[in-house]
User: What shape does this take?
Amino acid sequence: MKESRKHPYDELLASYSAGSLPLSQALCISTHLEHCPDCTRKLRRLNRVGSELMQQLQPAPATDALKQRLLDRLDTLTDTPAPAVAEAAPEASIPRALRQFVKKGYQDLSWRSVSANIQTVELCRDSNGARVELLKIKPGGSAVTHTHLGDEYTVVLEGSFSDEDGLYAQGDFVLRGKNEAHRPVATQDRECICLAVTEGPIQFTGLFSRLLNPFIRRSYA
Amino acid sequence: MPRMANNQSPGDKLTRLSECLDNVARHRDKQAFAQLFDHYAPLIRSYSLAREPGADLVADELVQEVMTRVWLKADKYNCKLANLNTWIFTLARNCRIDYLRRNSRYVTEIDPTDIFNDIEDEGPGPFQLAQQNRAEENIRTELKKLPREQAEILTKVYLEGKSHQQASEELQLPLGTVKSRVRLALKKLEVLVAR
Assistant: This one.
């Protein structure tokens, strides 16, 4: 999967275009797309694939009653009004897909320390149980080496980090599969904030931190 | 698998429908809207039935949702970002996602609205636009030439809304085979061609 590092691989982007991904994964892809004109162009073509497939369907006729009902209603339809001037407009740097969770800025969220270098805030859970959270790593700080029992999707929101395979900057999309151990380290110049979606409990692989596993697992229960 | 319609001459029809949408946007033209309904409602129903065979009420509801958005958002449609068919497809997809979320047994706290809305950038320049249109025309012709097993997977993913995992179970194929068929199909369609 090396060639697709930093971008979602093509089959994944196709499933996003088709609308057949869990929303937590779609959230990551949408966040990446805001930063990536190349993937956005690909997405337009992928949408076209969906559109052509739809055009090839054998039409299933609609009843006149359905049509009439809709026509009769047209004059009463109004667009959902834009939210009356939000009390706290999100900062411009917050990706649109995340604004439902980050109402103002990243710093205003209730961060929780999980280690000397890392803070986290859970945004929500998806229907498949995936955990959606933000991670904040101190400048030069590193996460504990870990693997996951499910896939882990990461998008860099601010700053940058590196791991065994390379350096990831704002907007980069990283997918780590099951059992791929890695150890992200934030670059020295500034803290790194990432969106992370984890589909199964994380497993710490270091000798000492393995002791943490029972506690961590419980938090996913 | 949903049945496929016979070939139709798509270019002229699309032009006519695009004019209808324009009339809806500019003049709130109900007759033009009715023409859009006549063309798209059966396709939207069919798209819904591909995922939930036999669920006619769900299909009707999807038609109402999508066509309502067409009426309300006609003036927001940007032909530089997607042709009308593609716009309708993305609306139908978004409405279906929304419907599934509201009616799922499994709760998700994620609101799809801002995840799938088009990112309204400045749009491609004229050169890019021409290039993009060529690439997209190619998709139409190549789609018809795809080997059956690749077309079948795309249908599962795009129309039936299946995950790769579900597709692999239904077709009794290894997950890797499903993914590589999607990938091969996209390659043939030149979706992945150089930027």
